[in-house]
């Protein structure tokens, strides 16, 4: 009973550990996938809006670069009825704000409400109720935007409005859709009409852009001009919005012709994040790099202990910082500084442990504290730990209840069994004692050579059966003793016949071994014959290539090939699971499929690999095999190596000695596991300069063991390649194989070994 009780208790502990381990794997995988999907959705929303403003800005930049060539077009367009701007001057006056204070208003010009876009010219751009000539000219040069901006407002990413601001000296505003901009600004932003538009609303934006002009290479050296103004509450009732800016440069790129802005409403994004469901009470949040939480549901605000306040700096900025949280461990959370998924275990919130999962989003250029700097926002998930482990706690309770019930039942059954056993032993022992004494005496007489002894059977129970067996054994011994010589002769004849049959079978087995050996040798020769010969590799002018393959058995499962066709060099390397004849045949299937597709002028890398997978999968199903293989295919042309498919790492050593390890895990799936792997395929491009070295290998290299089972490893392979990268590909290959064989020593080679070295001349 004690042993059983301890066994059940041990089972309970082991079951708990197994369930907890499984839950840890499951919840991490689930949260990671959910977080990555959500972050991709958020990034996509931002990139959509950024793409819109880049298109509009690119159009305006092209117009600005044409300079005087566009003057006639500007003059014609600005005079057409649809594009002509009819301005009305609103005289200056004093009005009371919501607090009853007198504030300046009016003093600006604005066009009619019937026009496609509103144009507002502020007080410092007018004289005696009319727009100054230089401002009027700048406005007329932007008249063509009445065709473009309304369309971008209606289509593309959801946006509140799109507008153009004139050059820093004349910052008129052209905005679509039409709104009574001057009146709204008078009501919400007193004093705006007397201060430059850029400085009043977006202080530091123009000076930051101007510093780009002074950088080495000027603005042409930059690839990204998009600048994001942090989220703020739209005073016009648009909710929480974020402004994305893009400058338009002068033709010589030494000045600013103006800027485009998009007010992107964050309501859709915030609603999406608020609606993320995690367990029962988990939630998601979106925070800026400084910890300002811009999106979270109401319950999340309470749980995180956030304090909401507004900072008015022309625009009402939303401030809700993690560092100001009433929860100490939330306030101490450090946001991630890289793109990986980060887990914060046992974060105490409201006295309960929670799991917090964080991931950085795409980098933005953000205007903060008057300067433009790169910034990464962070998406976070928060889930109570007790909700994740709810099934574990239920399982523990169920196991404990079962354990108590089993122990109680066993105690009752054991006590009753002991009583019955004691009574049975007493009754049976008296009956069986007499027969056992007779059996003992009979055994003694048999040991003395009296094989005619027999014991009388008195019962049909086990003792009676034992007595009968004793009598049969005595009779058989007596018979064998009397006929021993005849039995020996008979057995000798049988052994001679069996020996002749064994010799015949051995001869047949030897012939079969010779035949199988010959067939395996043919298969091995065939496998080696389809490898690219040295002469073909030497004919490739731009590349110096050397390869090596050594099967672990007579026939191996590794594959590599170098082919020419369709204007590219097709390079492949793969590893079939296991080794031997079946793996070797599958390797030959792959080589044939690749060469056939190349000959049929298939040029799309991902479709190429998808067809190879389909052919191999169907052949595997036909022969009822469980094999599959990792396979990477590369197309080389004009100094670029395009890589598709999942295999081991690709090691690249630059001519400078810098070493790169390219992970191919995300470029596909093992070939032959599924009929269609197209959706999992991806490709990447590696640029090669003269002297750069690329090394491909199979796991037979890195997993090769010496006598103490220590593996060769990727790090040692990288060291050997780096030491010899200035040599020819043949010398690099020889150095790798020599070092590998030195590592293996006298130990057995358990897997096929393949190395392919490619060096650009």
UniProtKB/TrEMBL annotation:
Residues 470-515 form a coiled coil. Keywords: Coiled coil, Hydrolase. One of its GO terms (biological process) is signal transduction. One of its GO terms (cellular component) is membrane. Residues 430-482 form the HAMP domain. Pfam families: HAMP, SpoIIE. SUPFAM superfamilies: HAMP domain-like, PP2C-like. PROSITE patterns: HAMP. It comes from the Bacteria. GO terms for molecular function: phosphatase activity. This is SpoIIE family protein phosphatase.
């Amino acid at each position: 009973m004690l042993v059983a009780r301890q066994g059940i208790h041990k089972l309970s502990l082991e079951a708990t550990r197994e369930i907890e381990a499984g839950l840890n794997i499951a919840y991490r995988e689930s949260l990671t996938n959910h977080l990555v999907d959500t972050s991709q959705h958020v990034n996509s929303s931002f990139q959509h809006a950024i793409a819109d403003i880049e298109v509009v800005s690119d159009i305006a930049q092209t117009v600005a670069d044409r300079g005087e060539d566009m003057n006639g077009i500007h003059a014609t367009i600005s005079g057409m009825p649809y594009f002509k701007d009819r301005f009305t001057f609103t005289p200056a006056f004093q009005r009371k704000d919501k607090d009853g204070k007198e504030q300046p208003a009016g003093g600006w010009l604005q066009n009619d409400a019937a026009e496609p876009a509103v144009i507002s010219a502020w007080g410092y751009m007018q004289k005696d109720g009319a727009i100054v000539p230089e401002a009027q000219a700048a406005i007329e040069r932007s008249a063509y935007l009445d065709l473009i901006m309304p369309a971008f407002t209606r289509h593309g990413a959801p946006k509140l409005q799109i507008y153009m601001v004139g050059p820093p000296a004349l910052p008129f505003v052209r905005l679509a859709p039409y709104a009574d901009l001057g009146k709204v600004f008078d009501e919400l932003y007193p004093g705006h009409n007397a201060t430059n538009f850029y400085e009043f609303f977006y202080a530091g934006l123009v000076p930051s852009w101007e510093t780009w002009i002074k950088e080495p290479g000027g603005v042409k050296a930059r690839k990204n001009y998009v600048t994001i103004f942090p989220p703020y509450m739209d005073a016009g009732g648009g909710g929480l919005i974020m402004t994305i800016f893009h400058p338009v440069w002068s033709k010589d790129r030494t000045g600013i012709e103006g800027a485009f802005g998009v007010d992107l409403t964050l309501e859709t994004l915030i609603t999406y994040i608020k609606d993320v469901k995690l367990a029962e009470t988990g939630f998601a949040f979106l925070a800026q790099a400084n910890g300002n939480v811009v999106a979270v549901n109401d319950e999340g605000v309470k749980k995180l202990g956030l304090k909401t306040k507004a900072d008015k700096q022309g625009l009402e900025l939303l401030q809700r910082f993690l560092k100001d949280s009433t929860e100490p461990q939330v306030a101490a959370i450090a946001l991630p500084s890289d793109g990986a998924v980060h887990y914060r275990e046992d974060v105490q919130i409201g006295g309960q442990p929670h799991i917090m999962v964080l991931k950085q989003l795409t980098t933005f250029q953000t205007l903060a504290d008057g300067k433009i700097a790169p910034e990464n926002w962070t998406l976070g998930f928060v889930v109570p730990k007790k909700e994740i482990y709810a099934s574990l706690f239920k399982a523990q309770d169920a196991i404990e209840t079962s354990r108590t019930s089993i122990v109680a039942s066993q105690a009752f059954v054991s006590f009753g069994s002991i009583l019955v056993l004691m009574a049975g032993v007493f009754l049976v022992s008296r009956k069986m004692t007499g027969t056992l004494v007779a059996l003992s005496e009979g055994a003694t007489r048999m040991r003395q050579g009296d094989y005619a002894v027999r014991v009388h059977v008195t019962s049909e129970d086990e003792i009676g059966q034992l007595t009968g067996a004793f009598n049969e054994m005595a009779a058989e011994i007596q018979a064998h003793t009397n006929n021993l010589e005849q039995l020996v002769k008979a057995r000798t004849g049988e052994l001679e016949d069996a020996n002749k049959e064994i010799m015949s079978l051995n001869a047949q087995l030897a012939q079969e071994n010779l035949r199988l050996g010959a067939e395996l040798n043919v298969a091995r020769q065939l496998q080696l014959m389809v490898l690219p010969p040295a002469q073909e590799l030497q004919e490739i002018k731009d590349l110096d290539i050397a390869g090596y393959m050594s099967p672990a058995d007579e026939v191996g499962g590794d594959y590599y090939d170098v082919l020419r066709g369709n204007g590219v060099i097709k390079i492949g390397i793969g590893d079939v699971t296991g080794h031997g004849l079946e793996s070797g045949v599958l390797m030959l299937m792959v080589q044939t499929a690749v060469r056939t597709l190349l000959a049929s002028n298939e040029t799309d890398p991902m479709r190429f690999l998808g067809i190879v997978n389909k052919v191999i999968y169907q052949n595997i199903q036909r022969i009822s095999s469980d094999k599959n293989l990792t396979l990477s295919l590369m197309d080389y042309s004009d100094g670029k190596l395009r890589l598709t498919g999942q295999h081991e790492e690709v090691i690249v050593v630059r001519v400078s000695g810098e070493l790169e390890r390219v992970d191919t895990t995300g470029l596909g799936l093992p070939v032959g596991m599924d009929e269609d792997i197209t959706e999992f395929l991806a490709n990447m491009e590696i640029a090669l300069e003269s002297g750069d070295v690329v090394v491909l290998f199979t796991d037979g290299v890195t997993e090769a063991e010496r006598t103490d089972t220590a593996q060769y490893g990727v790090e040692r392979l990288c060291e050997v390649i780096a030491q010899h990268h200035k040599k020819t590909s043949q010398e690099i290959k020889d150095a790798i194989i020599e070092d590998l064989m030195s590592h293996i020593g006298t130990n057995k080679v358990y897997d096929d070994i393949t190395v392919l070295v490619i060096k650009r001349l």
